[in-house]
Design brief:
InterPro entries: Acyl_CoA_acyltransferase (IPR016181). By secondary structure, the chain is an alpha+beta fold. Helix content is 29%, strand content 44%. It has helices at 2-12, 27-35, and strands at 17-23, 39-50, 53-63. The longest helix is centred in the N-terminal third of the chain and has 11 residues, at 2-12.
């Protein structure tokens, strides 16, 4: 619900796209973003430091202005 609400707010604000990231292999978060219409666009190595270790993340986007 939160991801879909973010899309609604972005569209109302006239934004072109939304971007998100998930830990690689985080199936729950990947499912939420997929259901909200996000597409994976790549892997960012060592994207965030979590619990003292650099973690790879999958990057996601959702074009919200109808350009796609």
């Amino acid at each position: 619900a939160a991801a879909r609400e973010a899309v609604r707010i972005a569209r109302a604000a006239g934004l072109h796209r939304l971007e998100a990231s998930t830990l690689v292999g985080n199936g729950g978060s990947e499912e939420v973003l997929t259901r909200a219409g996000f597409d994976p666009i790549g892997i960012a190595p060592a994207y965030l430091r979590i619990d003292g270790a650099w973690s790879d993340h999958t990057l996601w986007q959702r074009v919200v202005d109808g350009a796609r």
